[in-house]
């Protein structure tokens, strides 16, 4: 709206502030811009692997918007600022007109506990304020370092202005009644000074009421870091966009070191007075009309009086006006300060990977352009034999800054990676249907944990691998963020998915035959050797086209925990894999979703202590309704209903291979030790495996079914 855009310093759903190379620009509309806080959580615990070996806790760097950081206790409301000063001066009158959201108390504040809020509804609204602030465009001008003057400086100049106004009134009085100066050749008329005096004070009163109306129309808040929390950075992320007819580029703005305060100013026309329950326009409109009437009347009276007074009154008024203009310009000198800014690419995935990685490490120095080269790598492990070493002991979760940032960007621009949206939606439906089918509620889902090995390499560094931990029923926006980031970072698409490790030629034949028997068709499978090479087809099995990258084969599915059962014990080296069973499944666009679904199904089967009956060729599991016997066709039909998988054969491959990984393929074959082929490079490092189960609660651990061994 034009009045807010032109007269106020606030932002709202209708007014935004954006960054250009020339500085901050106020623009009508809701801009695509985020205000994010980088902080470290309070807890620094450790987690243990399934082999009771301590691992580092997940990355301790978190990011969140204003509402999330406030709810986490990272930020608190500062009891300072111009709003408090204004209230101190005008007392209860100001308190009546100021909204309850302006007296927001930090969590645990004694005033709040003592009934500071007049109603429970007011208290609830006050606690929701940070989240509402985060949903609207942030203030950029207020958050530039030293953009706002100190309170002492403001009061000093306010007193000077008041003194100058008294001088502007006193000098004409002295010239008229003490020195009796003439107006030209005639004495000053008797009405001149009284008219001038009344007009001046009417004008001052009208302007004061207008200022009061503007002051009560906005909410100013200042948030500061809590005493026991570490705020590393505060930054604003602006996407490339068009506002009106003006294009704006993508930028990230970073606060300068030492300034971690966040200042907000918002305009909410729907707010009401919590005491009288009147809407703001109901009491603002008569106030504005009255103030404008005073100003109009005062201006006329002052002008008539000045024309009849000695010329010194006009010159004095002009000189004081010029002096106050200079003072106002000096007070606003900080607006010309600029934050640290970096121009970014427009792709949201590149932004999430690059800026998210900077949140975990260090930001570029001020004045240094942001590197526009390829973004850091963040994708599932996809090269057989290419890991070279075990993943690091570090864990990352869906709270990783890159994932969180991509999720936030998706909320601003839903059209990006639009083809991923239906896939992530169908993927979550499949997860939910699996839990619902076995009678497992959300609490039970929270015990379902699984990990994926991901490439986690900063720019210019070698391949580095960590474990991504997922828990329970992952929400759709997080799945969308993961799939979008992984697809962006993945060099090429593939139609092959790894479904199992193999430890010999005999083991490969046994596993592919198991799939053939349960699918009731020949499965298009091949054998990847442990060093990433391709073994020739076995017997009469038809050849399969396999994807290659720079002379090496690659596929999805290698990151799934149950395929490797990763651990960090030295003894695991005794079970070095011979290779991998790879099967062609579905369309490339959904392959990363298949990888996530396979990991979830593996964790769910282990959670339910699944076992396999070789004679009946079915499975049994401990669901929410007790022991339940089921066949793979039941799960296949459920998966087909979600629309995630296009063909029944592909669904059978995903379901049966997952069931087998947790039962008949769970352990390396006891009789077939690892063997080698002539073209197997014994010096090439390979991942290790373990004969232990996935990480589940101890009471749910059970011995493997004897009939489930190969």
List the keywords:
710 residues, alpha+beta, 5-stranded antiparallel β-sheet, 26 strands, disordered C terminus
Amount of helix: 25-40%
Going by helix content, strand content and strand pairing, the class is alpha+beta
- First-residue to last-residue Cα separation: 72 Å
Number of helices: 20
Unreliable stretches (pLDDT < 50, length at least 5) are 44-57, 80-117, 272-277, 567-575, 671-710
Rg, rounded, reads 35 Å
Architecture overview:
The chain has a five-stranded antiparallel sheet. Helices cover about 40% and strands about 20% of the residues. The chain has two domains: about 1-30 and about 65-335, no CATH class; about 420-450 and about 490-710, no CATH class. The chain has 20 helices and 26 strands. Strand 21 (about 550) and strand 22 (about 550-555) form a beta hairpin. It is elongated, with a radius of gyration of 35 Å. The protein is an alpha+beta fold.
Brief synopsis:
With 710 residues, the protein is an alpha+beta fold. It is 38% helix and 18% strand.
Please describe the topology of this protein.
Layout: H1 2-7, E1 15-20, E2 23-28, E3 33-40, E4 47-48, E5 54-55, E6 62-64, H2 66-71, E7 75-77, H3 82-90, H4 92-97, H5 110-113, H6 120-134, H7 151-178, H8 192-217, E8 218-225, E9 230-238, E10 241-243, E11 246-248, E12 251-254, E13 262-267, H9 280-308, H10 311-331, E14 340-343, H11 348-360, E15 377-380, E16 395-396, H12 401-412, H13 420-437, H14 442-445, E17 449-457, E18 465-471, H15 476-489, E19 496-502, H16 505-519, E20 525-529, E21 548-549, E22 552-553, H17 561-564, E23 579-584, H18 591-607, E24 611-613, E25 618-623, E26 626-630, H19 632-641, H20 648-661
Parallel strand pairs: 16-18
Antiparallel strand pairs: 1-2, 3-6, 3-9, 4-5, 7-8, 8-13, 9-12, 10-11, 12-14, 15-17, 17-18, 19-23, 20-23, 21-22, 24-25, 25-26
């Amino acid at each position: 709206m034009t009045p807010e855009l032109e007269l106020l310093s606030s932002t709202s759903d209708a007014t935004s502030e954006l960054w250009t190379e020339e500085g901050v620009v106020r623009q009508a509309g809701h801009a695509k811009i985020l205000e994010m806080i980088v902080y470290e959580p309070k807890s620094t615990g450790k987690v243990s692997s399934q082999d009771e070996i301590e691992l580092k806790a997940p990355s301790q760097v978190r990011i969140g918007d204003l509402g999330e950081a406030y709810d986490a206790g990272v930020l608190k409301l500062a009891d300072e600022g111009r709003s408090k000063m204004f209230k101190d001066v005008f007392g209860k009158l100001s308190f009546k007109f100021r909204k309850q959201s302006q007296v927001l108390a930090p969590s645990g504040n004694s005033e709040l506990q003592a009934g500071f809020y007049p109603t429970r509804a007011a208290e609830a609204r006050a606690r929701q304020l940070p989240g509402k602030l985060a949903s609207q465009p942030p203030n950029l001008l207020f958050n530039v370092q030293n953009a706002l003057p100190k309170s002492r400086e403001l009061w000093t100049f306010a007193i000077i202005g008041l003194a100058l106004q008294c001088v502007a009134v006193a000098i004409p009085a002295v010239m008229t009644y003490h020195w009796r100066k003439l107006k030209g050749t005639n004495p000053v008329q008797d009405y001149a000074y009284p008219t001038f005096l009344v007009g001046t004070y009417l004008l001052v009163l009208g302007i004061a009421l207008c200022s009061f109306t503007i002051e009560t129309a906005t909410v100013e808040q200042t948030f500061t870091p809590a005493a026991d929390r570490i705020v590393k950075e505060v930054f604003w992320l602006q996407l490339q966009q068009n506002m009106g007819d003006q294009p704006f580029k993508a930028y990230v703005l970073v606060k300068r070191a030492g300034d971690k305060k966040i200042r907000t100013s918002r305009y909410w026309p729907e707010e009401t007075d919590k005491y009288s329950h009147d809407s703001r326009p109901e009491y603002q409109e008569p106030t504005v009309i009255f103030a404008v009437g005073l100003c109009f009347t005062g201006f006329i009276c002052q002008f008539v009086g000045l024309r009849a007074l000695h010329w010194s009154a006009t010159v004095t008024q002009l000189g004081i006006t010029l002096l106050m203009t200079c003072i106002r310009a000096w007070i606003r000198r900080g607006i010309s300060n600029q934050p640290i800014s970096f121009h970014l690419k427009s792709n949201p995935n590149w932004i999430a990977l690059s800026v998210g990685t900077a949140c975990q490490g260090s930001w570029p120095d001020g004045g240094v352009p942001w590197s526009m080269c390829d973004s850091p790598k963040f994708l599932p492990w996809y090269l057989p034999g290419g890991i070279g070493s075990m993943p690091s002991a570090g864990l990352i979760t869906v709270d990783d800054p890159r994932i969180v940032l991509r999720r936030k960007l998706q909320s601003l621009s839903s059209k990006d990676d639009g083809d991923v949206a239906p896939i992530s939606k169908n993927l979550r439906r499949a997860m939910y249907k699996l839990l619902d089918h076995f009678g497992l509620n959300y609490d039970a889902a929270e015990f379902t944990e699984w990990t994926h090995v991901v490439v986690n390499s900063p720019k210019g560094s070698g391949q580095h691998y960590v474990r991504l931990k997922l828990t329970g029923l992952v929400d759709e926006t997080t799945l969308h963020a993961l799939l979008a980031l992984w697809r962006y970072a993945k060099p090429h698409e593939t139609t092959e998915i790894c479904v199992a490790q193999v430890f010999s030629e005999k083991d490969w034949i046994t596993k592919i035959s198991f799939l053939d028997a349960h699918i009731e068709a020949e499965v298009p499978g091949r054998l990847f050797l442990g060093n990433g090479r391709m073994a020739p087809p076995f017997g009469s099995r038809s050849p399969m086209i396999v994807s290659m990258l720079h002379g090496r084969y690659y596929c999805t599915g290698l990151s799934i925990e149950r395929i490797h059962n990763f651990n960090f014990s030295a003894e695991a080296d005794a079970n070095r894999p011979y290779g991998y069973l790879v099967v062609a499944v579905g369309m490339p666009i959904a392959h990363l979703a298949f990888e996530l679904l396979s990991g979830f199904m593996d964790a769910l089967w282990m959670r339910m202590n699944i076992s396999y009956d070789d004679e009946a060729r079915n499975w049994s599991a401990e669901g929410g309704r007790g022991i339940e016997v089921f066949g793979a066709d039941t799960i296949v039909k459920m998966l087909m209903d979600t629309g995630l998988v296009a063909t029944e054969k592909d669904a059978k491959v995903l379901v049966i291979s997952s069931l087998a990984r947790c039962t008949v393929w769970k352990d390396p074959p006891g009789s077939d030790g690892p063997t080698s082929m002539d073209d197997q490079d014994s010096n090439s490092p390979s991942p290790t495996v373990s004969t232990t189960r996935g990480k589940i609660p101890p009471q749910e651990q059970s011995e493997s079914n004897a009939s489930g061994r190969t």
